[in-house]
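[agent] plan:
  1. take the single chain provided in the ticket
  2. run structure prediction with default settings
  3. attach structure tokens to the ticket
  4. add a short note for the reviewer (M.T.)
[agent] executing step 1
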Amino acid sequence: MPRKVQDVIFNILLWAMIAAFVFPILWLVMTSLKTRVDAFSLPPKFIFTPTYTNYSKVLEDGSFLHYYFNSVKVGFLSTLFSLLIGIPAAYALVRFPMRKKEDFAFWVLSTRMAPPIMVILPFYLVFKQFNLLDTTLGLVLIYMTFSLSFILWMMRSYFESISVDLEDAARIDGVSRLMAFIKVTIPLSAPGIAAASIFSFIMSWNEFLYSLILTGDKTKTATVAITSFITFEGIRWGEVAAAGTMVILPVIIFGICIQKYLVQGMTMGGVK
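[agent] step 2 finished; step 3 output follows
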């Protein structure tokens, strides 16, 4: 098969995959801007007069905004603390000699293997005992349990791709190991840190089960709050679409801001 034909077929398949991923998001945004009549019209309307009524209904009582900022706060704090703990831990696994560190790394990874539905009851009982139910601290801690393992393994692979000679050169110039880590290794690891942070934030932002069980009206997150638009009268699809659009917006903005680091961080960490 000629090279040009292969390139054309590849481009067609690539654009088809992009369309498959983008179309649900586009449909969600379009539905949020439609009236109920337009949303349920057959055949579907792609040309219509947009309305912001659905967004007004979502924001009119202020409760969804409260839950929305809960998600922002919990997502940011869980990502920040996971990075503060996971990055030094990954560095220690790579640079310091220790017994059974491969076993330890695998044990950390194994914490991701248990299905959330299996461990939610023990977590609930422990949180109830320590008065952590319906608290921001409790939700941050539970999100860190699955963010830490991801960050540790991703950054561990990334640190292995950074030559130790660069740190040794800095130490010869008189800096301590800690300062070499801060001034040399961390800047070189910026793409990996960016990739780990976006995935950690997405996992925390999109999480539903733990937030549903372990929170109440005080610390409920936006993903759980969307279910409030499902009432005994029926599903208010316009408000659901508007709330869903608001929920995916921060992740898209965050991803766009660090996209130049994202691919580099995902690829360089896999090469020694």
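[agent] step 4 note for reviewer: The mean pLDDT is 85.
[agent] ticket updated
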